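Hello forum,

I keep getting stuck at the same step: I have a sequence, I want structure tokens, and every attempt I make locally crashes halfway through. Rather than fight my setup again tonight, could one of you with a working pipeline run this one for me? It's a single chain of 766 residues.
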Amino acid sequence: MLGAAVVMTLGLFAPQSQAFAGAAAGDPAQAAAPGTTASRAIPVPKSPHAISANPRFRLSSQDTDEETGPRPAPATAAAKTSKSGKLLAGAAGDACSDLSGVINNTGTALVTALKTLPQITCTYPLFGLTGQDARNTFREDKMVTVANALRDASAAYNGTNGNQIGQLVLFLRAGYYVQDNNAATVGDYGTALDGAAKGALDAFFAAPRSKDVTDANGAILNEVVTLIDSTQTAGRYASVLKWLLGSYVSSWPGQMNLSMQHVEWVVDNAFAAKDDGRGFRAALKADPTILDTWAGFITRNGASLNRDDVVSNVGRFLGHALDVPELKERLRPLLKDIINRYPNVGPTAPITMNLGWATRQFDRGNCAAYAICDLGDRVLPLVLPTQHVCNDGIKIRAQDMSPDQLATTCTSLINQDAYFHRIIGDKGAIAGDVNTNLEVVAFDDYTQYALYAWAIYNIDVDNGGMYEEGNPAVPGNQARFIAHEASWIRPTFEIWNLNHEYTHYLDGRYNMYGDFEAGMVTPTIWWVEGIAENISYGYKGERNADAIAEAAKNTYKLSDLFDTVYGQEADPEVNSNRVYRWGWLAVRYMLQKHPSDVQAVLGKYRAGDWTGARTLLKQTIGTRYDADFATWLATDCATNDCGTLPDAPAGPSETAPLCTAADTRQFDQNCRRDGLAATTGNYSYHFVYLPAGVKQLTLTATGGTGNADLYYGGATWATTSAYQAKSTNAGNGETLTIDNPPAGWVFFSLAAAQDFSGVSLSTQVK
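Reply #2:
Ran it on my machine without issues. Output:
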């Protein structure tokens, strides 16, 4: 799970990642969003930029139980090696001595070497030790020695670092950190250290001055609180956490405030520990008044809620106690009060929305107990006020997009439609598919998406967005792409994965029969994600450097990639690599080398013949292309960036002969005209003479850019207000079939819903 307090550009805390995976029966707040039915839900990968761009962004330790190192030392204070080869404690410049005594000594000499360091920051380089130095420094017997020294020193603790107690604490913290990352090198830690560490912490917290509300004590206390997390003893020291929660006020000095901030790490990891390995859940059951103190911590400091605050960050974890069944009854009124006490938008949203999420995650079906069954409806108009229609097929709902950004997004999607059909071909929409309209939802950034999308749209937010097809056979169904802006590249504007997800919409409408679940009865992910990656990169003219780098590794056979499914590999990163990068490679190879096979497989997909498609892939093709795929990876990808996407095999509009009439408006009975164009609101008018007895006239438009809609007027000119039939898809892929048309001149036109050019239009008479 991704940590809920994800701080991004606006500094808002986002709800926990597994916000909601499915609706619970009888809970209105967990029903599908209006206009949706059974979901075809495809998650979007999180952007690595969204994680790394902001230095305050931290993955929750629910993703990893790795202990967190100290705040970075000043850049001028990096560890240095002297001419004699000694490791220098450079965190405080020349004021720090070398650390060779800490690395090489044991027993009393080790403790003396630590206490000789003039200040706490001199220990910072210890967190970076590796190899034999890490082994020499942090093996268990030395950790026990320092833990016992901390126990003894704590008896005389006076609320300051006068006796260098902080250096002992930081040594232990560094040891746990380095061992966690280099266990094979450092060696295991066992019961001896476990007992010594508990003895040291017991002694420190027993010292009366450990509760001094001063910067001097806070400088030590904040590190000791983190040591609770390092030693995985949250349950044992629940009373300490209760004291911190019950005593904290926003006027605490900075170092004491930091102690409160570090409580987040402790409770975050404590709730995430499997089988209550840290004893925290048992401690809460033994003393449930901790919950009242925790709630009071929030309400007492309500005036401090400001998006980026310790109260929201620590307070949100109160909701996780709902995962302890024995605590539900006590928690429900506390959470109801907090969630409804403060607004769900603005500075107080991080606490109210996170706690709201927790009620659904851990107490599903009980939204009424918290008075939040209508939470999504409440926040929708406040969070997503902008509504914009691109054309009949695309509309946008946004949190904050300028008119220029809206127009740019519309143009990108409309033009992509033509590109998609150029690569795939255009055989019309799947029979019975009524997903004629896509809604693009754009939150301002990832944090806003994670904060609100789970409540409004009932989706998991541990991703970079979600495409929901719904049931394309149900009239009124709303296909929807729920996304967020790529805030890390501002001032450049971009909706993260917009073109990838729009390809899913087009693919679902033109290639994949039924809803998403129908297409998952056999492995189709190689195509679903592979074509989305290919169209997205190809349309934007971008080089897929990551996939090209993967090609050099020759990790998978093509026949194995036909078996790709979500969650196939144990490592999520490896699985994502297989799904997206290797999907891109597999589809690109097949489109280049075996386009007829692709069309054959798509023919099965369009008919919902999943078993037939599987037979084509695994038996007819089987392993026949594996050797050539490996050669292609090693040659085309190494020297030509895996080549380019070829156009689809020619369809009727491309194979028909060019029209011969001098009047460019006039068509023969079976011919085509290329390069047609018109500006927004105008027309490209045409007509054809039909003899008596024609059974069927087919008009087909393809290719080009922009958005041209096709209208048929019969014996009169065809316009958007006077017509007998129309085809108004997004882009230029339009087809009309007129049965038993009248004899004589009949008229049709391309109407420019948006400037279009380069369109081909053909007639076919039967």
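The CA atoms of residues 9 and 154 lie 42 Å apart. If your local run keeps crashing, start a new thread with the error log.
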